[in-house]
Amino acid sequence: MLATRKITLEVPAVLLEKAQKASGAGITQTIRTGLELVAASRAYDQLLGMQGKVKFSRTLGELKSDR
């Protein structure tokens, strides 16, 4: 099991209500989902930065012929 931390945070009530309504979850799961989205967006930005910089050793035709 992953280590967890208990934290206290202050957020605007309206923002929390909107986020909970959008997620359909309780406070804890809504916050976790938000943190996961922030972490994923960073990884996505890094992938976008690599766009066009990765060289593949096989052509698209070779990959399709493997099927």
Protein model, in words:
- By secondary structure, the protein is an all-alpha fold.
- The chain has a domain at 13-51.
- The chain has helices at 13-23, 27-49, 60-65.
- Helix 1 packs across helix 2 (27-49).
- The longest helix has 23 residues, at 27-49.
- The mean pLDDT is 88.
Outline of the structure:
It is built from three helices and no strands. With 67 residues, it is mainly alpha-helical.
Poorly predicted ranges: none
Helicity, as a percent range: 55-70%
Calculate Rg over CA atoms: 20 Å
Name the helix and strand elements from N-terminus to C-terminus, one letter apiece.
Answer: HHH
Number of strands: 0
Terminal residue distance? 38 Å
Alpha-beta content class: mainly alpha
Strand content: under 5%
Overall pLDDT, averaged?
88
Q: Helix count?
A: 3
Largest sheet: none
Q: Which of globular, elongated, flat, extended, rod-shaped describes the shape?
A: elongated
